[in-house]
Amino acid sequence: MGNSLEDWKRVPTTADVLFGIHLPYRPPKNPVGAFFWRKRVWLETTSGLCLFEPWEKILIRESLVPSRLLVLSSSRFPPTPPCDQLHSGARPRPCPLRPP
């Protein structure tokens, strides 16, 4: 994407907003695309992504974001031990994971 007048006047598509490396200057005419354009403008300007080179944006988008999602999803749903290992007391207790 250059810095020409044609690039500035061009109305982007929703796919340009969602999958493009460069942030379009204008929002798309589609209301859904305009919503995602506003969210992307907010994200890139708040986090400083608008200052990165294209290869740095690709690096963040393709490696750091999926790894963060993997860590967050694994910490939200940790594996639970079997019911026999939950209680180590002398008297047996009912397992809270199984109905009586």
Commentary on this structure:
- By secondary structure, the protein is mainly alpha-helical.
- Helices cover 55% and strands 0% of the residues.
- The longest helix has 23 residues.
- The radius of gyration is 24 Å and the shape is elongated.
Outline of the structure:
With 100 residues, the protein is mainly alpha-helical. It has helices spanning 5-9, 14-19, 31-47, 54-76, 83-86. The longest helix is centred in the middle third of the chain and has 23 residues, at 54-76.
Q: N-to-C terminal Cα separation, in Å?
A: 64 Å
Radius of gyration: 24 Å
User: Helical amount among residues, as a percent range?
Assistant: 55-70%
Number of DSSP strand runs:
0
- How would a textbook summarize the main sheet? none
Amount of beta strand: under 5%
Which descriptor suits the 3D outline?
A: elongated
Structural class computed from helices and strand pairing: mainly alpha
How many distinct helices?
5
SSE ordering: HHHHH
Mean pLDDT: 76
Low-confidence stretches: none
